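Sample intake sheet
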Amino acid sequence: TYVVTSAVNRIAITLWIVMTYLVEGLFLLPVLLITSPQKRCGESTLQILLNKLCRKPLLLSNASTAPMFRIMEKSRPTLLLDEVDTWLSNDDDKSLLGLINAGHTRDTAWVLRCDGDQHEPRLFDVFTPKTISGIDARSLSDTLADRSIIIALARRGPNEAVGRLRQDKLNLN
């Protein structure tokens, strides 16, 4: 293994990966919320693995609202949002957090934005799978935590062996 988490969490992660391939037939998409109490618990490592295993992955370490709703509708990626403790908590108007929450069910996965040079009102469909990872990420929002499968990671103990993920050797395609 490359991250320290429970057997139940490993099963949940596996099922969530499968869910990304079934999204067209689903009406509900729980966020995979990867959280840890401190640095170096494997949040980014897990995101890198998900980037190799999920359907149409898009791994980001920062984003703003405008490109997010556009890419969600255009490409229907599996959004893998890393380091959210450093950028999502600074979302003062909560528009990005609202955008992430909006995609929980197919019926409520619509956001209204002005678009184009004429600033015409337009609906964007934001129903796409998402992961969010960061230190103490579950404290970002009660609503987000309620709509998530929470994966708690921990630092390895002194007697636990964890393999080093060699990204240059990781080729699952």
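Comment: Strands lie at 31-36, 57-60, 78-81, 110-115, 120-125, 130-135, 148-152. The mean pLDDT is 84.
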